[in-house]
Amino acid sequence: MNHQHNTLPAKTPANHGMRTMSKPVILISTVLLLLGMGTLPAWSAEDTPMEEMNMEGMDHSTMSDMDHNETSKKGNSNAATMDHGDMTSSMQGGSAPADARDPHAYSGGYSIESGKYALPGKRILVLGDEHNFGSLVMDRFESVRTSDNTSATYDLQAWFGRDYDRLVLKSEGDVDNGTLEEASTEVLWNHAIAAFWDSQFGLRFDTNNEGPERNWLALGVQGLAPYWFELDITAYLGEESRSALSIEAEYEILFTQKLVLQPRLEANFSGKKDLQLGTGAGLTDTAFGIRLRYEIRREFAPYVGIEWASLYGDTADMARATGLESNETRVLAGLRFWF
Amino acid sequence: MKRFSPNTPAIPDPSRRRFMQGLAAGGVMLGMSPLLSKSGWAGEKNSATHTGMAPVLSGTEFDLTIAETMVNYTGSPRMATTINGSIPAPILRWREGDTITIRVHNKLSTSTSIHWHGIILPYQMDGVPGVSFKGIPAGETFTYRFTVNQAGTYWYHSHTAFQEQTGMYGAIIIEPREGEHIRADRDLVVQLSDWTDEDPMDVFAKLKKQSDYYNFNQPTAMDFFHDVSTLGLGAALSKRKMWNQMRMSPVDLADISAYTYTYLMNGTSPRGNWTGLFKPGERVRLRFISSGTQSFFDVRIPGLKMTVVHVDGQDVEPVTVDEFRCGPGETYDVLVSPKDDAYTIFAQALGRTGYARGTLAVREGLTAPVPQMDKPQWLTMTDMMGDMGGSDMAGMKGMDHSGHDMAGMNMDMNHKPNLVHARHARTEYGPSVDMRVDTPRTNLDDPGIGLRNNGRRVLTYADIVTVGRKQEDTREPGREIELHLTGNMERYTWSLDGLEFGKSTPVHFPEGERLRVILHNDTMMTHPMHLHGMWSDLEDPNGDFLARRHTIAVQPAQRISFRVTADAPGRWAWHCHLLYHMDAGMFREVIVA
Fold this sequence. Notes:
The complex is a heterodimer. By secondary structure, chain A is α+β, with helices and mostly antiparallel strands. Chain A contains four helices and 13 strands. Chain A has a twelve-stranded antiparallel β-barrel. The radius of gyration of chain A is 22 Å and the shape is elongated. Chain A starts with 22 loop residues before the first helix and ends with a strand. Chain B is mainly beta. In chain B, strands 13-12-15-20-17-18 form a six-stranded mixed sheet, with no helix packed on it. A six-stranded mixed sheet of chain B has the order 24-23-26-31-28-29. In chain B, strand 17 (306-311) and strand 18 (314-321) form a beta hairpin. In chain B, helix 4 crosses helix 5 (233-246). The radius of gyration of chain B is 23 Å and the shape is globular. Chains A and B meet through helix 3, strand 4 and strand 9 of A and helix 3, helix 5, helix 7, strand 23 and helix 8 of B.
């Protein structure tokens, strides 16, 4: 499995026509909605790492639904029974017990920079943990074909920084007929809060060829849930008390070491109606896609795929009122690459 | 002394052996354009690397020159960082009791260093930039001078950046003052290592971006369907359940694979087939030095029993085996008595993606069959959970758990050794640690993943016993120091007690004390832990002295202990000898004061 954290938060709902509809999408997005609702309150300030157990408990019920997992019915860690599966809860995450060892207990008051035998001057020995790394992942760079149109979509995430604190840039957009129809760019401070989870805080800037610009405060979590689901859940607060929530989930199924099937789901919610952008309140849109990629190298993988996208509620009504469909099927061909 | 002379005929003839079929056997690219040289070392015309059996330097005065030279292991010439222009570096022959002077001339455009692995010396001579000295700046010479108070097989390597990966390693042979007492007719160094054509910093960055980048042995949907059809759906699911639940990979055997690595034996690729010569009837001492930067090797010589007589520079009670595992930093001397004309020395990497290979033969040009590599195996519950895994003691977990929930309840450390309960550092509950082992295993008689029940007699740590089980310092340890080996594979961060070097404080060994160190592995990889400057006197699970070591490989979910006599004032390095783990921060400074 490739564990690149490359999922991106969804953009404002697409305003162009949609044709078909996939029922399971609603079911799955409802499940994810519950997951998202449960998770966000569990998020706490950056200096108080979230107890991963909270997430595991919730993920667990969710994932066993999605995954038809056989036996495990762990509600939360306190209800642990005695099989191996339950041991894992004390092996990961959690908070330190009161009697946990002090990792500096053996220092005798010395530091790596000063004290007897220390070398004079600036510290020379600086290892990878104090080194900046950076990466750019173009997760989706694809041609999108619907029954009556062909456009292009890009979706990238870049980061620069250290192991647990880094700057993250997320950007995605749609290009139609050589015009950037809509784009969303986020600049986020990314801070690791648990072994598999990062918190993200920053700004999002949306542009739309047919509507007004929107700016948001973004607050989210991104990481790897049990059973290797990559999740990215972000809440947004905008001007005029607008709010939104986006959820993205990805999974990877290896057919071979290089041929990878990636189901991907995104769902967007809006706190209030936005007439200018044609979005209603509540669940506005979902997209469920399956992409099959071949990793010529880890960094370079062409793919083909199919995606079902739907609009819901007032969002769907407003689309239909302008003569557009609320469902569409997209055929995709693209390239995933990173460096 | 004369026993070393047979080395010379073992040096293969380069003109005959290299570039057969146009393939790079680990040799010289003659006539390489000097423009390819990144170094400013314009003074040297011929910048080709000598590979194969290293030249031998002996005496008390040595001059070692560090420079960039060209080498070609894969068909693409690359710049290596070499010592006196060879991979491996020259074999240094010292005599116990001698005072040695080594002038190291740095002809690189960057800083360098040499660390004498396993040698007990003053800390200023230990060669770790930032700990023992400031390093050897570009263009400068540093003179190491120390008295050799030990004998046996050791090695030396750069302790700067990734220079060890790019070719800076060589053997040290120290003759005992009273003369060699391990009787052998022939004495050959077999140094194992790994080579990549990539810039090691790129390798490291790739691991940071995608930690399983080099792992092409991952479970697939096809494996799952195969398991469903052979084991049934329930078994196929439960085989995967814990791994998937915990987001841990059962196939995370090695971070770096043959995808980028060429595994070398005496600086020679498998195709190059390094050949060590013997005469029929001779007893041959093979000094295996495990210098892989990120590779464990499982060594065997099909058709020959190997008698292990000397480990980490210490004579050990002889034990005869078919196979042994050696981790980065360790050395193993074995005696063999070959009768046939040719035998393959086979050293498969732990990840089972490739191997180093050479031949023991009566003359050059002979080969013996090269075995198939073993199939890679999944890590087991034992590797993940220690004593609990796969045992019938799962019920204990319930108790553990309530213990955890009741804050303030102290872990009882007086359990029998095989029921040790861990006491984790508070810094192990954050993003730097993906897993903790609460019930580690303490037994040493496990050869480790991939070698269990393979039908061969495989050496384990329980078999390695210092001759007479005699320890030099018989005092009981007066203090315990516990460190946990930790990491987060997903983030590719490696640490001790959840703290990488930059966030750590030194470990203080009060000078003159005898103390016990406990290493507890909370990860699913084996970490060869190397303490500089002082011996690590490994204890058995009952706390009795077993063997004097300089590098101790701690297996997944294992807890080991060793004794140290803090008799070496100064600052010392202590780290995982997997180079990329060390460079990720799995490193502590030790202060003896």
